[in-house]
Design goal:
The protein is mainly β. Helices cover 9% and strands 39% of the residues.
Length: 106
Amino acid sequence: MRSLGPFHRKESPTQTRQIAVEQESSSEIWGATPKNGGMVPTVQAYPGNLPSCRGVEFSTDVSIHPGSCPIEARWYLGFTPGVEERKNAAGDIFACIPADVVNFQP
């Protein structure tokens, strides 16, 4: 079990069932550059257990970025130690953190 967390992501258009399956099997959480003013690829999640809804819950060994909002955890590619770069099949760049993931999107 990883030491930091739990964190969660609720099911959404960007956190789909298929992505949840991929996160659980790869033990990685990826994040794109936020559409509303983001500058770099960023893994985003909420601290705490997943509330009574569909989504994923995870723990990680990568500390959240210092100064992250208390109601949202963020890990920035190139700025948060331990965040790795990943590319999808289209060549888009993502931030990535290793994680133990539990999928609540059957």
